[in-house]
Amino acid sequence: MAREQLKNLTEPMYYILLALTTEQHGYGIMQQVDKITNGRVKIGAGTLYALLSRFEKEHLIVQVAEDGRRKIYSLTEKGLGILNDEYVRLNRLVLDGKAYLNKKGEKK
Q1: Contact, 61 vs 49, CB < 8 A?
Q2: 14 in any annotated domain
Q3: Global confidence as pTM
């Protein structure tokens, strides 16, 4: 997965990386995403573990510990950079939308 492929993250990708700004295991990530989004976004185990594997291969996250069967992950600098890039991109979308809708409202 080249950086170009990560230019626009999916919603689950974004929230998984956001949850990993603090060390988490898989189930903890699912709980954190649920908390961050007030239950709006649900990430299934299949999606979560497929993305964790993908992120680990691309060095966006790293396994920092193992507690029994639980693997604990953390965001790398590369992962944090991609998360920050997506945050900026999403904010631009919102600002563009506000500006456009405000202009439309002024024309009435």
Answers
A1: no
A2: yes
A3: 0.88
